[in-house]
User: Fold these one by one.
Assistant:
Number 1:
Amino acid sequence: SKKNGLPEILPIPGATTAERIEENTKPATLTDEDMAALDEILKKFPPIGDRYHKAVQQYSEW
């Protein structure tokens, strides 16, 4: 992300061909409009519940 204070977005794509792997290793450029569109989509799906199951949460520092 190019927003101050936010981490880089690193997608983990799948690939079935060498050409697709090469394509997937190139950086993607998102415009301000792209980021605004993504933000609008994410607003429709607020986080619900805990990130981890309670039994696992005790081992996480998050």
Number 2:
Amino acid sequence: KTLAGNGGYHSVGYEDEDGIEGDLLYGFSSTSPIDDRTFVTSPDYDTQAPSVSSAPTVTVMPSPSPQLIECDFESSLCGFTTASLPWTRTSGSTSSVSTGPSGAFEGSYYMYTEASTPNYPSKSFYLTSPELSTSISGTAEFAYHLYGLSMGTLYVQVSDDASSWTTIWSKSGNQGNSWGVAAASWAEMVVSYVRFYGVSGFSYTSDMAVDDVLVTGVLASTSAPTVSPAPSLSAVPTPAPSRSPSSFPTSNPSHSPTHRPSSAPSSLPTLGSFICTYATTIT
């Protein structure tokens, strides 16, 4: 900055940066010494959205369905019951040729129906589970054997009271001399019992068998897991750091103003006040 005399008047110029492209210059005249002048610009506030991390991923791992009953018939019937035309626990082959399995699906023992006279045609055989924990959905997995030219039909049925039954799986006719594996499922049903219901065909060659029964289900008292909602996030403006005030020396620089702002800061004295002060000094 440069100081120069001007016939008793001192032209003083100050420059300040306000973040706007171009020069900002304020000017006035005075005969009195000029103390340090400080121009303080209003701080700008930048409204910035805070960085927001995404809500944590909540993974609900389904718990395995509880086993309602599992039986391979190796040592007992596991609580299964049978009616007047019984399912029989046995090992090895059945008593009839050209029908029935030659052995268990796994292990030694299995359950089968004997269709020899007088147990055909269309005779019913029931193998009913004990009362299970009440479920609202589930699956009965099992191995089955349906071999014989006059094979009838095997049904899997479920019930909530052991009196009214709903069929969830069935298979009819000769399926060959080998074991098959099946899964019979139910959903949105109250189930407390599962049974195997066999109907013999038109002759003795309709011995059927089941083995390795596993029943699983979602218990009626099991509630769905609760997942807490993600917390709400709000953006808070972050103020920009205020600018440091500028200090100016008491020397009298001579700098003719080239730009005048549309409105001078209130902290600057007006030109009229300095002229009045000068007139008083001359007098």
Number 3:
Amino acid sequence: MSTVSTLFDRKLNILINIVGRNIRKSVVDFTAAEFSTLMATNFESVFHISQLAYPPLKASGVGSIVFTSSVSGFVSLKSMSIQGATKGAINQLTKTLACEWAKDNRRSNAVAPWYIRTSMVEHVTPDCYMTINRVQHHVGKGRCLNFSMEVLSNKEYLEEVYSRTPLQCLGDPKEVSSLVAFLCLPAPSYFNGQIVCVDGGLCVNGFYLDMIRRGNLAIFLICSCYSLTPFSLTSTINDITLAFP
């Protein structure tokens, strides 16, 4: 940070914290060392970098911090318990700094992506699986780098990702980078303490069924509003069915 301060005349306008690692294991299988590694890599690093960046950010007179979080900080994802915990910690740090450093005209926000179509995700071949298996054989299962390519090369898994994502597609890197760039600009100067999900709607997707074509949704609404049972609405149901073929 002293080098950065020297290069920029001891002033810093923008700090973008990008770091992330995961070890895919169930909770009961994690060792203390693995827990410490993930916490240190994903959370402690950005915490201390932010501490060190505070003086040059304050000296600039105006500044913006953008953290890279993840949807795992909002919803439960399989084999991402500790990684999700670190991202949840980043979310809270984002909010804390937004309040604590606001007096110095420092804004703090975060982006939380879902699966993004990067080269690491796209360029997957059977050789990747062979390499991963060899690494796991030597260093132990779960100790190798667990990139998204491990799961997105699985067609069934990818279809499951699509099914849980309302937009039914992966994100594009530009859809994340453009948001980060926007948060750093003067334009969103009143935007502070927010964690923006770039996830195609994953985090807001509850139990949703496309029933409008059969008229069921309209039927449920009528029953709810008038406290009537579907059996007493035979004629109405027929009308709705005709209205929504």
